[in-house]
Amino acid sequence: MDVKLDVASYIRVLKLASTPSWDEFSQISKIAGAGILLVGLLGFTIFVVMSFLPA
């Protein structure tokens, strides 16, 4: 494990990283929110189906 090489890689990545614009952040938030809602709806649907099926 070469610590100097790892730290240099991390610093290089941080120098390339930039803060997203408001439009980019908004779009990413909408997509992530839609994904969370979709997974929640799928889980709720499975729960409802399983609760009505006979055991």
UniProtKB/TrEMBL annotation:
Transmembrane segments: 31-53
Cellular component terms per the entry's GO annotation: endomembrane system; plasma membrane
Gene3D superfamilies: Preprotein translocase SecE subunit
Any GO BP annotation: intracellular protein transmembrane transport
InterPro entries: Prot_translocase_SecE_dom_sf, Translocase_Sec61-g, Translocase_SecE/Sec61-g
Cell location: Cell membrane; Endomembrane system
Entry GO MF terms: protein transmembrane transporter activity
Listed SUPFAM superfamilies: Preprotein translocase SecE subunit
Topological relation to the membrane, as annotated: Single-pass membrane protein
Chief location of this protein within or outside the cell: membrane
Keywords: Cell membrane, Membrane, Protein transport, Translocation, Transmembrane, Transmembrane helix, Transport
Record function comment: Essential subunit of the Sec protein translocation channel SecYEG. Clamps together the 2 halves of SecY. May contact the channel plug during translocation.
Assembly with partners or alone: Component of the Sec protein translocase complex. Heterotrimer consisting of SecY (alpha), SecG (beta) and SecE (gamma) subunits. The heterotrimers can form oligomers, although 1 heterotrimer is thought to be able to translocate proteins. Interacts with the ribosome. May interact with SecDF, and other proteins may be involved.
Similarity-based family: Belongs to the SecE/SEC61-gamma family.
Protein's name in the database: Protein translocase subunit SecE
